[in-house]
Task: structure prediction
Amino acid sequence: MSNKILGAVASTVLGTTLLTASFSASADDHQLAISGNAGIMSDYIFRGIVQDDAVGNGGIDLEFGGAYAGVWAADVGDGIEYDLYAGYIHEFESAYVGAGYTAYRYTEASFDSDYDEINLYAGATMGAASVDIEYTMGEYDGTYSNGDDEYTFTAITGNYGGAYLTYGDWGKDAGDDMGSYFELGYTMELGGIELTGAVVDTTDADAIAEPDETQVYVALHWGFDIL
Result:
């Protein structure tokens, strides 16, 4: 699983990266926009869970008005993860709401199984500060299901300048406790390349991660216009 959508930061909440990019796109002129992105992560951490290290990634996104669709892929060592997503964002004067669908797929079933999600999100901007909220309902066909393949995930991210703080919490996840996490990071732009450094602290993730595990990662991201 991953956080890559239109994304500058691969481990930030899906809504934060997706909405930041889409929010600033051509929602008002209703023209088709196509963009691409590429990057590398020292560690691929998604929603507090470590996926792999030294991961290259990239994707293509289409936007038309408030609608978006795209694909993102990453080399996770044991095959390729590729994610398909689409949705719609409605923008107000200084806020937004949106809904989307995300499908996570893997070329090698030994790495992970398929995930499908409905993503709901909202946010607001107040000067240099902003807040983003995500609520996800998903299901998967994985080894952790124990007969129950549904889960939820909730996250809130506060941003100020280039700094951000995310709190994410796994709700019902196949009857297991996937735990919660905090992520504190900072993003800066250097010659058209975005550099992000972050610390992720995961707590009570008894299902598939060590409790109270702290990770540090660095990510480089390049976004570019195609059309």
